[in-house]
Design a protein that fits this description.
The complex is a heterodimer.
Chain A (H helix, E strand, L loop, with lengths): L7 E6 L5 H8 L1 H5 L3 E6 L2 H10 L3 E7 L7 H11 L4 E7 L3 H9 L4 E5 L3 H44 L11 E8 L7 E7 L5 E8 L3 H22 L2 H13 L8 E9 L4 E7 L5 E3 L5 E3 L19 E4 L5 E5 L1 H4 L10 H7 L9 H16 L8 E8 L2
Chain B lengths: L1 E7 L2 E10 L4 H11 L6 E5 L3 E4 L1 H16 L4 E4 L3 H10 L7 E2 L2 H7 L3
Parallel strand pairs in B: 2-3, 2-4, 3-5, 5-6
Antiparallel strand pairs in B: 1-2
Classes of the chains: A alpha/beta, B alpha/beta.
Chain lengths: 388, 112
């Protein structure tokens, strides 16, 4: 993963002519075995030229006192050519002042003259080891950035399919919002105007996270919209979407969703539940009732299932809350869940007034409850209010 | 999340303890796949010690059921706590994977 392999290229920089033959002789075993490969330069200027020409050089081994550009000036220049090179300085024995300056300028290590080649070998290997680990870490960082980009793509896909505005009417109100988790989840909601002034409402949760889940979410939403417009009856819509999602679904991804049709003219809400949390009806006095599960299985798992639907007639002032498990399974720092009881008890003291307020009260309550505990799942809530 | 498995009476019984969520669903999957017997044995997932399972965990249960099905073996779950049972009921998973009261019931349910 480090992207560098032997022979490791080492640039030796010294103006004295005797170092080159000495290195070649004393290190020849490692050169022959393919471990190292040496290049030589006479001063800092030549060294920089070598680095520009050959980006495979991983270590610079440099003297300090040289004409044209000395070793300390070279240390300043190396990162500008290649920030991932490690430098080792060769200094006179006891020249602590220059050694300290060199270390301050980014030298990784030093050896002293006369060069002890066993010590030099150890120093080179230690430097290489550190360099390999460093490059591994850089690679890991790059992969993390790539993963983050992928999550951003998924997040944008998720946001892009949510309705930005809601249908308005004198006899109903709708409001919905989603608070995505940091790692992209797969919630979505949709509000559709269907024929005859009827509304199609959906809240859904895809089983996994990341780009594959986002793609599954996109197709779920598109198939749902198509089926909703073409078929009408919630039970038939779910059966149709289920069959379409089951085709080629080797990954066993699935989506739970509630699809409901609301007719404001007679306040009749007809809904079918495909493995999703039951919507909650809050009446004008703040009393909560869970809408029954209709026995449906999550969509995308088993083809040719039949789905049931049920109807309720709402009264003016009733609110129906559609939500995902991000609401009920939100956890606080004591690892307790928000739970159905808290959701259902929210309006026992303060009567619900309008869809947006109800939705906001739920979000605020969940956030208050969770406190500083990290949000692990998308939180989605949609509220329908029936008017007289 | 901890998994332990024992091969008994023609089935592999896997006990899962702790939480299964999006963060460890992959470990859960790998652990279950590793527990699949070489002889086409059916599997019973004992969830008595399981405190939470997310949809990502349910997906793993289904993937393992599919793997077993390819070997003509079956998957059953047993000993669900109330909250896990609720998750299975709401999602409809109890209609796809048979749910039993305990491992003994599961074994007889699988015809073992």
């Amino acid at each position: 993963m480090s992207g560098i392999q032997p022979p490791y290229k080492i640039l030796v920089v010294d103006d004295e002519p005797d170092l080159q033959p000495l290195v070649q002789q004393r290190m020849r075993r490692y050169v022959r075995s393919g471990q190292y490969q040496f290049t030589f330069a006479q001063n800092g200027v030549e060294a920089l030229e070598c680095l520009r020409q050959d980006d495979e050089i991983v270590i610079v081994l440099s003297d300090i006192n040289m004409p044209k550009m000395d070793g300390l000036a070279l240390l300043d220049q190396i990162p500008k050519v290649n920030p991932n090179i490690r430098s080792v300085i060769i200094s006179a024995y006891g020249d602590m002042k220059n050694i300290r300056t060199a270390m301050n300028r980014g030298a990784f290590d030093f050896v002293t003259k006369p060069v002890d080649f066993d010590d030099l070998k150890l120093t080179i290997d230690r430097t290489l080891q550190q360099l390999l680990e460093w490059r591994d870490a850089l690679g890991a960082r790059d992969r993390l950035v790539a993963l983050q980009n992928e999550l951003n793509v998924a997040s944008q896909m998720q946001q892009s399919i949510l309705p930005k505005s809601f249908p308005q009417g004198s006899d109903f109100e709708i409001y919905a919002s989603m608070k995505p988790a940091r790692s992209v989840g797969g919630d979505f909601f949709d509000v559709m105007r269907l024929e005859g002034g009827v509304l199609g409402l959906a809240v859904a949760d895809v089983s996994d996270k990341g780009v594959p889940a986002a793609l599954f979410m996109m197709s779920s939403r598109t198939l749902l919209k198509g089926a909703a417009i073409g078929l009408g009856k919630p039970s038939e819509v779910l059966a149709e979407v289920n069959n379409l999602l089951c085709e080629d679904n080797e990954t066993a991804m699935f989506v739970t969703l509630v699809y409901a049709v609301y007719d404001p003219s007679n306040r009749k809400l007809t809904f079918a539940n495909g493995g999703h949390n039951p919507p909650v009806l809050i009446d004008r006095d703040g009393n909560a009732t869970r809408l029954p599960l209709t026995g449906g299985v999550a969509l995308g798992l088993v083809p040719d299932l039949e789905y049931e639907q049920m109807s309720v007639t709402l009264s003016p002032g009733d609110h129906v809350i559609f939500y995902t498990d991000g609401v009920t399974e939100a956890m606080n720092e004591a690892e307790e869940e928000f739970g159905m009881d808290r959701l259902e008890g929210l309006f026992s003291q303060s009567r619900p007034s309008e869809a947006r307020v109800v939705n906001d009260v739920i979000f605020d309550a969940v956030m208050d409850f969770a406190g500083d505990a990290p949000q692990s799942d998308d939180i989605t809530c949609m509220t329908l209010r029936a008017e007289g | 999340m901890e998994l332990s498995s024992e091969n008994t009476g023609g089935a592999v019984i896997v006990k899962a303890v702790g939480r299964v969520d999006g963060a460890n669903a992959r470990d859960f999957h790998e652990g279950l796949e590793a527990s699949i017997g070489a002889g086409g044995e059916s599997m019973v997932l004992d969830f008595e010690g399981l405190s939470y399972i997310s949809s990502a965990g349910l997906r793993v249960v289904l993937l393992v059921a599919k793997t077993l099905q390819q070997q003509s073996a079956k998957l059953a779950v047993c000993s669900l706590s109330d909250s896990i049972r609720e998750v299975f009921e709401i999602s409809g998973f109890d209609k796809i994977v048979p749910v039993y009261a305990d491992a003994g019931d599961a074994m007889s349910g699988l015809g073992l």
